[in-house]
Amino acid sequence: MTRTRPGGTLNRRHFLAAASAALLPTPALAQAGASDVDVVIIGGGAAGIAAARRVAEAKRSYVLLEAGPRLGGRARTESAFGLKVDLGAGGFAGGDGTLGASALAAGQPLVPLPSGRRLFAEGREVRESAYDAFTATLGAARRDMLAAIEGGKDVAAAQALASAPPPAKGTPGSDGPWAATVAQFLGPLSCGRTLAALSALDLARRDARPDDTTSPFGVGALMEALGAWVNVQRDAPVTLITNGGRFHSVSVRGQRTPIRARAVVLAVPAPVLAAGAIRFNPVLPTRLVTALRAIPAGYLEQVAFRLAGNPLGLQPNETVLVKANAGAPALLRGRVHGGELHVLTFSDAAARAIAEKGAEAALPLAQAWLRANFPGAETAVSEVVASRWGQDPLIRGALSPALPGQGAQRRIFTDTVQNRIFLAGDYVPETGWGTLAGAWVSGEAAAGRALRLFGDGPA
Ligand SMILES: Cc1cc2nc3c(=O)[nH]c(=O)nc-3n(C[C@H](O)[C@H](O)[C@H](O)COP(=O)(O)OP(=O)(O)OC[C@H]3O[C@@H](n4cnc5c(N)ncnc54)[C@H](O)[C@@H]3O)c2cc1C
């Protein structure tokens, strides 16, 4: 049986979703008509959904407030050319944390992604020896970065590589013919910013496992399915959080009465908090605001297009990295779910242009990338569908890497705020930041800490 909070509706879709989740724990919902709950969760992305499920399992009253019309946040499955495609997280590390296990336990199908990526240069796949050279350069770059941060020092990641001592004779170094490609891969293509604008400490500590799992229906659709039975208010943007002593009051735009909560899990993106889109009374501690400003958004945008007949000769869901050249760097995911859709992920300046102008900027960028790397293929692309995360006021970027010198700031995000606010989201984990699996784990962890306020769970 499902009851909803005031303002929520129990329609047929919700009922079916709840019924299909019959094997899942019955969520402990807020009393209809009441404005007090044990936990308010703000933000319906992976972190918020995971937190809500954890609180529901503990049979505490709660509500998940999502500003937009749907759940999933930066995991969003769109329709492009009549086909489903993820224009945010398109996969995740299945063995990293609990997301994969939660999906399987909920009866959601998962499929493996091809391991590794294919490397192309000048229109064709490189030889085996070039793969070895690339891998060695990548390994050397990681070693140089670790050496540069010894003793807790932090510099720009580019500086860490530039100032690395020359490698011992016979050992590969982080320079050489693949250095620029490695720099693009580690910087813009993974973090949305160049190595010159990234903290070596933050990057070296990042230990995100490669994505090896996806959903055949889309990762965004998977998120919606995992949130299907939670007690959620959509189109409910939180505007103000007030510390009222025994409770925190959470104000939602368009709702006259604030919701009072004994604990708050705050699962909105870091750039949204840094921009002051939610007001706090009293204001957030200065050191937290400083830390949020130390991890400004990196930009990634995705561009989907159709290529019939597999002209690039790719396996389903294969990722292609090309050798750095004069054009804008991008990572290609080919033949999404085995179909005709391909997705290019652009970063940094190109991503900002796409965020600002949409398809008007995305189409020429995609065509230029194809012309430079698979000459002739560009003639088949006359229409694209593009993400615009950087323009979305509820998201404001792709992920949140630290600025040079600021890598140590991330540890602040696990501190409890005003005794009752717990931060969750992909920017929170010190090592697994910037990933869907990391966001999921951080949501569960924040909910666990909130529940301990009530004496639930281990101290
Ligand atoms: C282009 C792109 C590609 C990516 N690819 C991958 C990938 O392949 N693998 C991977 O692991 N990760 C990937 N990521 C990263 C991954 O998508 C994120 O790390 C993850 O989705 C973040 O989840 P989250 O819950 O922390 O935040 P979000 O998913 O951003 O959720 C935050 C939610 O808060 C809501 N919100 C904002 N303001 C308010 C408010 N005032 N009141 C209420 N709600 C509010 C938002 O609407 C949103 O739904 C990618 C990201 C992008 C942008």
Explained architecture:
It catalyses: L-tryptophan + O2 = indole-3-acetamide + CO2 + H2O. This is Tryptophan 2-monooxygenase. Residues 216-450 form the Amine oxidase domain. Its EC number is 1.13.12.3. This protein is α/β, with parallel strands linked by helices and 459 residues long. The protein has 3 domains: 12-73 and 219-296 and 399-452, FAD/NAD(P)-binding domain (3-Layer(bba) Sandwich), CATH 3.50.50.60; 77-116 and 212-216 and 297-391, Polyamine Oxidase, Chain A, domain 2 (Alpha-Beta Complex); 128-205. 30% of the residues lie in helices and 17% in strands. It is built from 14 helices and 19 strands. It has helices at residues 12-20, 46-57, 99-105, 128-148, 157-162, 179-186, 188-191, 200-205, 219-226, 270-274, 286-293, 348-357, 359-373, 436-452; strands spanning 36-42, 62-65, 77-80, 83-86, 111-112, 118-121, 124-125, 213-214, 232-233, 238-243, 248-252, 259-266, 279-281, 300-306, 319-322, 330-333, 341-347, 385-386, 421-423. Strands 1, 2, 9, 10, 11, 12, 13 and 19 form an 8-stranded mixed β-sheet that branches. A hairpin with a 6-residue loop joins strand 11 (248-252) and strand 12 (259-266). The longest helix is centred in the N-terminal third of the chain and has 21 residues, at 128-148. The model is unreliable at 1-34 (pLDDT under 50). Residues 42-48, 65-68, 73-75, 88-92, 211, 237-238, 267-269, 272, 277-278, 300, 302, 345, 387, 389, 394-395, 398-399, 425-426, 434-437, 439 line the site of flavin-adenine dinucleotide (FAD).
